[in-house]
Amino acid sequence: MNAAIRATALSKWFGQGALRTPAVREVSFEARFGELLYIVGPSGSGKTTLLSILSGILRPDAGTVELEGRDLWSLDADSLAQLRLHKIGFVFQDYHLFPRLTTLENVAIPLILQRVPWDEALDQAARHLEIVGLNERANLPPVKLSGGEQQRVAIARAVVSRPDLLILDEPTASLDGDTGRRIIDFVKREVLNAHRCILIVTHDSRIFEYSDRILHMEDGRLRQVEEHHVHE
Amino acid sequence: MHGILRIAFKLLVNDRGKFAALLVGITFAVLLMVMVTSMFAGVMSRASATVINTGSSLWVMDPAVNTVANSIPVPDYVLDAVRSIAGVKYAVPLFTGSGLVKLPDGAYQAVSIMGLDDSSLVGRPELVEGHIEDIYADNGFIVVKDSEYPKLGSPHVGAEFEINDHRGVIVGIGRVASSGLFGIPALYTTYGRAVQDLPSTRFTMSYVLVEPKTPADIARIARQVADLGYRALTKEQFIQRTSSFYKYQTGVGINIMLMTVISFIVGLSISGQTFYTFILENLDKFGALKAIGARSRELIAMILFQAAFTGLTGYGLGVGLCAVLIAAAKMRLPSYAATVTFFNLGMAFAMVLIITGVASYTGIRRVIRIEPFDVFRA
């Protein structure tokens, strides 16, 4: 399988002088298309910082990130934003759905940012809501949905623009065990495909069984790579 | 509408509580600003009613005159001297004063009297009833049919009345562009009858009305009038002088300015604070949009659109409400002095631009600073 994203010697520090603290230290790995990769570790281990660097949101102090062979951090801010918009889908821990928009409009946002005409964006969003089984909730505001349903809306929003890389930040943190497992099972069955790589940051061991590989982080370093199952 | 602006629109109007608070802030600020300045404009217009209604190009007066209502009589030789100035097409006397009319029920009503030049009747009102030549009839007066007209018992042509113990007859009913400031009816008669029937000082001529041969002659006429020890003002200058007097020498202008500033501050406070809160509440969502791939300029466009939409809607509602209130007031009080001018509307619009500009600036600063990384830190 081809590398979807490749990190080479990534390092990131926060603070100045004596307070300078390393968040990510010399992290190198690659994630492949068709792979469901977990980044796990205790709080403060640098998972979120690493995720932010990989997704082109936080500039590293050292190292490179290549997305489909393109050096992410050699791009200017606008190009980076465009790359995120077209190539990366995000599912945030708190979903960050707009409570004043309908579920359908929330899902359509990445397409609208891509300047897809309004009606066409809503049509595509409706198809993705159908995939996540929420087409009957399309006109409700997200606050009327359960936590699991909101998570599925966030997933629909993340994949509506058909990104190559999907990033999920603590996707089960606000869900009960069963709902969390159902969500990840859904992601693995319906969202993952041979042209997409999915990175999940979590410390929820209940969903580890769905991963293809797990990167264990500790004190900003990559300590262990655990192979579970690799799609062919 | 571009999709991102449509999203901005929905975010704004679907948050009904905040949107209503924003509109209330701007609407009432505009309402107060336009209302106060319109009342001032109305008062100013009425203060110069005589100048506006008479329509003369150039007014010669005592230099101490500040408003048209407070004339200082000038000696007759001034009229002759002005007539002899090169460039003067004609010059006529004008009497302005006041009198007391005894109504049929025995009550007295103050009136303003305009005495027009006997031969030319320069400055006469437009007649809606009667014939202008009847003003030369015995005791002939023309009454102005305006909001004050009913105070004389709405007299018809031929009605007799008593003014300063002299008999008067209504020979015509006229109309003028602007009613006076002091809420009293207006009567027109000839200059000769006015000085004969009404008590006056040694000098009887209030103003000399001058028509120059060409506009270029005005400056020379004014210089020569000044050499005589008097002042010549164009119609616009006289209106401006009257307006300046009320603005700067009576405290009215300062009070109006204070009211306008207070309205502006109230609008800015309510709208600025509400809009800023609106942005703060959506800050994490803006951060999420940034993470997804929205560029800063797109987020700025969203905020500016929201601010502009709110500002324009509030401005429209404020102006509309003001117009309705003024119309309603004029229906109940015909003499209600308020005039919405383009200047007032423009000033209120500029104030709204400042309010929305400041409100959106504070929001934009926060949105520009938000790091998408913060979204991941939840």
Describe this structure in words.
The complex is a heterodimer of chains A (232) and B (378). By secondary structure, chain A is α/β, with parallel strands linked by helices. Chain A has helices spanning 47-54, 77-87, 103-113, 118-131, 147-159, 177-191; strands spanning 3-14, 21-32, 36-40, 62-67, 70-71, 88-91, 165-169, 197-202, 213-218, 221-227. Chain A has a single domain (34-58, 75-227), classed as Rossmann fold (3-Layer(aba) Sandwich). In chain A, the strands form two sheets. Chain A has a six-stranded mixed sheet. A four-stranded antiparallel sheet of chain A has the order 2-1-4-5, with helices on one face. Chain A starts with a strand and ends in a 5-residue tail after the last strand. With 378 residues, chain B is of the alpha+beta class. Chain B is built from twelve helices and ten strands. A six-stranded mixed β-barrel of chain B has the order 2-3-8-5-7-6. In chain B, helix 8 (252-281) runs parallel beside helix 11 (342-369) and helix 10 runs antiparallel to helix 11. Chain B is elongated. Classes of the chains: A alpha/beta (232), B alpha+beta (378).
Q: In terms of topology, how is this protein built?
A:
The complex is a heterodimer of chains A (232) and B (378).
Chain A (H helix, E strand, L loop, with lengths): L2 E12 L6 E12 L3 E5 L6 H8 L7 E6 L2 E2 L5 H11 E4 L11 H11 L4 H14 L15 H13 L5 E5 L7 H15 L5 E6 L10 E6 L2 E7 L5
Parallel strand pairs in A: 3-8, 3-9, 6-7, 7-8
Antiparallel strand pairs in A: 1-2, 1-4, 4-5, 9-10
Helix pairs in contact in A: 3-4, 3-5, 4-5, 5-6
Chain B lengths: L2 H12 L1 H32 L1 H6 L3 E4 L14 H8 L4 E15 L5 E9 L9 E5 L9 E5 L15 E4 L2 E10 L10 E5 H7 L9 E6 L4 H11 L3 E4 H15 L2 H30 L1 H10 L3 H37 L9 H28 L2 H5 L2
Parallel strand pairs in B: 3-8, 5-7
Antiparallel strand pairs in B: 1-9, 1-10, 2-3, 2-6, 2-9, 4-7, 5-8, 6-7
Helix pairs in contact in B: 1-10, 2-8, 2-10, 2-11, 8-11, 10-11
